[in-house]
Structures
1.
Amino acid sequence: MTTITKKNPHPFRLNMVSRKTETLFHLILLLFALACIIPFIFVIIISFSSEDSIRQIGYSFTPVTWSLDAYHQVFNLGDALWRSYFNSFFITIVGTLLSVTMCVMYAYPLFRKDYKFRGFFSFLSFFTMIFGGGLIPTYIICKNLLGMSNNYAALIVPMLVSPFNIIIMRTFFQTSVPFDLIEAATIDGSGEYNTLVRIILPIVKPGIATVALLTALGYWNEWFLCLMYVTKRELFPLQYLLMEMQRNAEFLARNSSMIGASGASAIATLPSQTMRMAVVVFIVLPIACAYPFFQRYVVAGLTIGSVKG
Amino acid sequence: MTVNKPVSLRHSRSGSKTFWLTTMMLPATIWLLLIRYLPMFGIMMSFLDYKLPTRKVPFPLNLLESPWVGLKNFQFLFTSESLTMIRNTIGYNALWIVLGLLISVSFAIMMSELTRKFLAKTYQTMMFFPYFLSWVVVSYFLFAFLDPTNGMIVRAQRAAGVNVIDWYNSPGYWPYILTICSMWKNTGYSTVLYLSAITGIDRSQYEAAAVDGATKWQQMIHITLPHLKPMIIILLIMNIGKIFNADFGLFWSVPMNSAPLFPVTQVVDTYVYRAYTSTGNVGMSTAAGFLQNLVGFICIMIANGVVRRLDADSSLF
C-alpha cells in the first residue's frame, strides 16, 4: 500500500489517472465533441442570417442581421418541398415496417437451435456480406427484370434486408429469450407464429427498436437509390432534393459568365444559400428529435451486434 | 403400437414446426435470391460485349445476343486513370483503418478514465451525432466553411490578407479534408463500441494490478488492450474485407463532384458509377465491380485465415 500512496499524492484518487492527465483528457474529448456538433449549429445560424449579412461578411457565427427569409422561401417552395418531405417520411415508414418484419421473421428461426435448416439460411444471408454481384448487375436486374424505375419500389425494395440487422436481431433473441419458454408454449399447443407474435416479440422489444431505428435512419438518409433509379421529380426524397439544388446552383454559378444576363436573372431566382441551409436544418431536425431514442437503443444494439454472435 | 404412437406424433409435430419456421424465412429469402444472388450471375456480363435490351430482345434474352469478349473488359485496369483510383481506394482505406482504430481506442480509454461519468456521457452523445447524418448533409456543413464566395475560412483568409485558397479546385488539400471528414463522422460510432467493451471488463482486475504496483499505463497495456483484442480483430477483418470498397457518399457528395479534384477523390465506386453513367459501358463497369468484390472476398478470407491460425477464438468465421 505504501508504494501506491507514494506514487499517487491523492489517496482518495486511488488507481486513477492524475488530475493533470484527466484535465488533458477532458480537453481533448471536449474539443472533438464540440467539433462534432458545431457545424450543425453553424448551419442553423446561417439559415437564420439575412442575405445582406452574407453578402457583407459571408457565413458567420455572428451575422450582422438575422432574418426568417430563408424559412419563408422554404415554405414558398410549396409543393416541391412538401412532396419531398412526404416522400422521405413515406419511404422511411413503409421501408422500416417491411424491413423490420422481414428481419424478425428471418432472425427468429436462425435463433431456434431446433430448426433444421438453420445452417443453410445463416450462410445464405452471411455470404452476401462478403460477396456480391456488384452495382451494375444489381442495377440491371432491379431495373430490367423487377421493374424498379421511377416508382416508390425502387426507393424501398433494394434496401429491405440487411444481414447486419439480422445478426443484431438474432443476438437479441439469443440473449433475452430462454429456450424453455418456447418449449413450454409448444407443449401448450401454441403454433409457431402465435408463439413468435404473442410471447417472443414482447420480450425482444428493445431489439426491435434498435433494428427499426437503424433501418429508419438508413432510409431517411438515403439518396443513392434515387440517383440510380429515379428521374421523376415527384418522387425525390428530401436528401436528393437538397443534392439537386446544390448541383443546379453550382452549374449556373460556373456557367454564369457564358450565359450572360439571362444567367444572372436565373441566379436571382435560384434557391438562395440561406434557403438551402434551411433545408439542411429541415432534414436534420427529425433526426435531432429522435436522437435520445437513437442514443438509448442504437448504442445497445450496435454493442450487441458487433460482438461475435 | 401404443408405444410407438407418441414418437410418430412428435415426428409430425417437428415436421410441421420445420414447415412453419421455413415459411417465416421466405420473404427475406426471396429478396436475397432476387436482389443479392441473381446479380451474382450478372458477373458474366463482364465477359460480354453487352447489348442493351430492346423491345424485340428484352432482358435477359439480350445476354444471348451479346458476344463473348473474354478479358477485353478488364483492359481498363492498365490505364493510368484506374491506377490512380485503385491507389486512392486502398490508400484511403488503409490509412483510415489504422487512424480510426488509434483514435477511437484512445478516446474510449480516455473516456473510461474520467471520474465525472456525466461528462463522459455528454461527450459520447455529442461525438455520436455525426454518425446519424448523411454525406449530403455533411457536404453542406463543409461547404459553409469552404464555399469560394461566402465560406467562413475563405472570408477569414481574405480578411487576413493571406492567399485565398480555392478549395474545390485544389486537389492537394483533399486527402486531408477527406480524412478529417471520415474521422469526424465515424469516430463516435467506434468509440461507443470500444467504450462499451471497456465497461464490460471486471474492475477487480485493475484493483489487483494496482495493489501489485502496476501503473495506469501498464494496466492499459496488460488489461484493457487484451480485453479489446477480440473486438479490434473482428472490426479489422470486416474493414479489410471492405478495403476495395469506398464510401460512395463521401467521395461523391463531399467534393461536390468537382472535376479538378478527381485525381485525389476518384475511387473504385465513383469510377464504376461515372463510367456507367457517362459511357454506358456495362461490360467494363461490371468488370470493375466484380474485381472489387473479388478482391474484398479474397482479403476477408486471408485476414480471417491468418487470425484463425494465430488465435482461433478471435476469427470471424
2.
Amino acid sequence: MIEICIYGRGGQGGVTLAELVAHAAIQEGKHAQSMPAFGPERRGAPVLAFLRVNETERIKIRTEVAEPDVLVVLDPGLLQVGDVVSRLKKDGIAVVNTKKSHDEMKSEISAGRLATINAMSIAKGILGLPIVNTTMLGALIKATGIVKLESLEEPLKERFGKVATKNIEAMKKAYEETVVR
Amino acid sequence: MKKGKIVGLEGSFAIAEAVRMVNTDVISSYPITPQTHIVERLAEMIADGELDAEFICVESEHSAMSACVGASAAGARVFTCSASQGLELMHEVLYIPSSMRLPVVAVTANRALSAPLSVWCDHSDAMAIRDIGWIQIFAENNQQAFDLTVCAYRIAEDKEVLFPAMVHIDGFYLSHVIEDMVLPDDEEVADFIPEYEHPFVLDPESPVSMGCYGPPFIYTEAKKAQEVAFGKSKYQILETWKEFGETFGRYYSPVETYKMEDASIALLTMGSIGETAMLAVDEMREGGKDVGLIRLRLWRPFPFTELREAVKDVELLVVLDRAISSGMGGPVCSEVKSALYDMREDLRIVGFIGGLGGRDITIEVFKYMVNRALEYPEKEEEFEIIDVRE
C-alpha cells in the first residue's frame, strides 16, 4: 500500500488532487481511499489531504496517514511553516512545487528522495490560474507511477468538463519536466 | 447474484445514489457539515432530472422534519439527512413520525455537539436520539452506507414495521471519503424495493385523524402498542438483510463479529472505526492475545439476543464509546452492561471513551484499551477517557 499526504492551502485543490488519483486508481482496478483532513475551510489556510492506494487488497485502515511514503507539497511556503517533511518515511519521496532548482531544494529539505517541478509557472502559463493541483498530478505520477498518466484523463473530464483539456495539458507538461533524484 | 459495477464514490454520493435508485418522492433537508454533500448531490439530481422528486426547501431542520412528516402522512416516500446541532434542532419533531408510524428514512453524518464548536465526527448526536423510537443502523464503510440506506426503505415501509429508520455514517470518515465500492444497477435496486403503500394516509376522499390528543385513559395503551411493534420490527430487519444478502451477496447482521470463534477478549465498536479495529485485532493476535471484535450494526431496536450470543465465551469485553453520557460514562457501554447484567458473573466489561470531536482512533489506541483493561482487573473508575493530553 502506498500512503500519501498532500499539503496545500485552501483553494489550491489538494483535496481534489487526492480524489482524482483515487478515481483513476479505482478505474485501473486498484483499491483506493481519499480522505480530507478538514480544518476551517477557507482560502489560504493550510489544508491536508490523505490518499491511499493498494493494488491487491481492500483498504481497511481509516485514520490519518501518520508516516507517508509520498509527500506532495503544493505550496513551498508550507515547508517553512511546520513539521511537514519530518513525518515522511526514510525512503519516502517528497514531490514539491518550487521555482528553485532541484539541487537548491535538495539542500533545504531532508527527504530521502525528491521530485521538483515549477508547477506554478506551468499552471499560470496553460490554465492562466495560480492553481497547481492538476499540474502536480503529472509530477506525482512521474515520481511514483502510482497510476498511469492516461488513467487521469477520464476523472479530469468528469470533474472539469470543458476545461479538462487544459488541465490534462498542464499535467502532461509537468510529467515531462519533473526532476526526480 | 446481482453484480453491479465497481466505482469510486464518496460516502455522501453513495447515499444520494441509494435515495435516487429507490425513487424517493419527497426530500426536505437543511444543509449542515458534514452532511452537506448528500443534500447538494440530491438537489443536483432533481435539478438535472435524474430524480423525479419534490425538494422542499426549508429554513431549518425543525421545518425539514415537519415537512417530512406531512409528506409521509400523505403517503409519499420521504428522505432527509442532518447532523449534530441540526439533528438536535430536529429533535422535537423526530418523535412524531415514530409515534405516528410514518416510515421516513434519514441519514445522519455523525458529528460532535457544541461547545467547543466541532464539525468533526463522534456519536454524540446519534446517542442523543436513542430514545425516540427510530430504527438506528450504523454503517462501517461507503458500501454499507449505500446498502443499508437501500435496506432502510424496505424495512421502514414494511407494513409490519412502519417506523422511521436512520442510517448513521461517521462524518468525514465516510461522508467525505472516496473509496471503491460496488454500485448495483438501477433496476436491481428498484426490483428489491417493493411499491410503497401506507395503509392510512391523509386523503380528502377518506379522511383520517393522525397524532390525536391522547388523554391518560389511552396514552399508555398507545405507547405500549408502539413499543411492542417497534421491538417486533427486528424480524423485518433480519428478513430484509437476509434477502439483500441473497440478492446482492453482501450480508448484514444486528451484531457482526470478527475472529470471535476462539476469542477470550472482545472489543466492541460502532461505525466507521470497525475495519481499523479489525487490523488492531490482527496485530494483537500476532502478539499472542486471543482478541476478537464485535460491531453493533443495529443500535435500535437493541439486539439483546445477538449480543448475548456473541459474548457467550468471552471473559473480557472492552467497549469503545464515541460519546459521553454526562455523569454516567459511555452510553454504549452502559447499555451493553445492562443487556448482559444477568448473563454471567465472570464476564468483565470495561468501558473507554475516545474518538471525540474527530480525534483519530488508531490501532495503537485499540491496543492500549485492551492492555489497560487487562492490567486493571478491578478498575476503580467506571470508565476512562483515553488518548487525552493532561
